[in-house]
Amino acid sequence: MIVFQQVGLRYGLGPEVLRDVSFALQPGSFHFLTGASGAGKSSLLSLLYLARLPSRGTVHMFGRDVARMARRDLPGLRRRIGTVFQDFRLLDHLSVIDNVALPLRVQGADETQLREHAAELLVWVGLGEHLDALPPTLSGGQKQRVAIARAVIGRPKLLIADEPTGNVDDRIALRLMRLFEELNRLGTTIVVATHNMQLVRESRHPELRLEAGALVQIAKAA
Q1: What angle do CA 12, 18, 19 make, to 5 degrees?
Q2: Average pLDDT score over residue span 46-56
Q3: Are 205 and 161 spatial neighbours (Cβ–Cβ below 8 Å)?
Q4: Is 55 left (phi over 0), alpha (psi -120 to 50) or beta?
Q5: Are 116 and 97 in contact (CB under 8 A)?
Q6: What is the pLDDT of residue 6?
Q7: Residues with Cβ < 8 Å from 163, sequence gap 6 or more?
């Protein structure tokens, strides 16, 4: 599904923040992305969700070389990717159900169907009683679950989560991981960036570790 070959990334004329990164992710796989602050995780994630293109090397996603694609074709590829950001990026003036339904509404989906689908997802993440709540009234864990529901409403082939457990306690972190595990069992490819090494150690999933912009490990978590 995803192949990086000798990928480098720099911002402007600055030094490379990623260098010679090569790996392949199979459909239906689950990987953790780890590394200290400044190691390049956010930069690698930005390539994965197509916010940036590589400075050198090649990135193939869903069989396409993203650097050779016409810019007008990139949004169609992005719709196959769901992203859960660390800061949630919910719209505070919209209800929970409208936040979740927004990606389908932007695509012009039928209003009745998209609201029904959004409601079903919110029940699935345990927020069935909060459909009309506004994000500022929710806890951090509840906001994160809304963000997950919004990320998956378009049935993405790839789900990228940036520090999804960083703002919640251990109990909520475990619940969030169970949601990701269930999505993975349904066939979604998952990449979770995290500083929580306990989650990584307790998981059976392989780890992609970055150090100073270089990929140093593609292995089962210890």
Answers
A1: 110
A2: 94
A3: no
A4: alpha
A5: no
A6: 96
A7: 86, 193, 194, 195
CA 157, 203, 206, 21 dihedral sign is: positive
- Contact (CB, 8 A) for 27 and 186: no
CB 17 within 8 A of CB 213: yes
C-alpha–C-alpha distance, residues 222 and 70, integer Å: 41
What's the pLDDT tens digit per position in 181-216?
988 998 999 999 998 888 888 888 999 999 999 998
- Tell whether pTM > 0.70: yes
Name the β-bridge partners of 193.
33, 162
H-state helical runs in the chain:
41-48, 74-78, 96-106, 111-124, 140-152, 170-185, 197-202
- Band of the pLDDT at 222, cuts 50, 70, 90? very low
> Token pair for residue 195?
């500083």
Residue ranges and CATH numbers for the domains of the chain are 2-80+156-220 (3.40.50.300), 92-154 (no CATH)
> Which residue type sits at 12?
G
CA torsion through residues 136, 141, 146, 147, sign: positive
